[in-house]
Amino acid sequence: MNRFREINWHPAREERRKFGLMLAGGAPLSAAVWFAIVRVASGEWIWAVPVAVGAAGAGLGLLLWAAPALARPFYVAWYLLVACIDTVVTTTLLVAMFALVLTPVAVALRLCGRQVLRKSFNRPAKSYWRAAEPTPGPERYFRQF
């Protein structure tokens, strides 16, 4: 899945205004979360940076909502940044999942002698084809439970 193809490079006026409103609401909210995390982590009330970020984000968001012609560069930059972060995080999580979950399970199954895929050589066999059980008729779709 290519996130860069999903970016709307030429957003309409309404979409740019919606982006401004999301920024105006999201920046103070993320600043409040940041403020709470700093408070829990350090035990001190450090409020200057979160308040500045929240106020700047809210002000910029309201400006972009009021003047959507200015919003396009911010919109494109924001979604480009999100697409980059999404690509890195998704790739990292997939690699970590494979290395930390699937590989140990496969090694453990192999050490126990189990072959989940039933793939082994059978030299005298003429074919590796296994007959499949016939499926019930299409009327089963009308009685699912």
Main attributes?
mainly alpha, 4 helices
* Distance between the first and last residues' Cα: 35 Å
Task: Please give the oligomerization state of what you see.
Answer: single chain
Overall 3D geometry?
elongated
How much helicity do the residues have? Answer: 55-70%
Query: Largest sheet at a glance?
Result: none
- Portion in beta strands: under 5%
The overall strand count is: 0
Estimated structural class: mainly alpha
Radius of gyration, in angstroms, nearest whole number: 27 Å
What's the total helix number? Answer: 4
Helix/strand order: HHHH
Q: Mean pLDDT score, rounded?
A: 91
Unreliable segments (pLDDT under 50, ≥5 consecutive)?
A: none
Structure characterization notes:
This protein is mainly alpha-helical and 145 residues long. The chain contains four helices and no strands. The chain is elongated and about 75 Å long. It starts with a helix and ends in a 33-residue tail after the last helix.
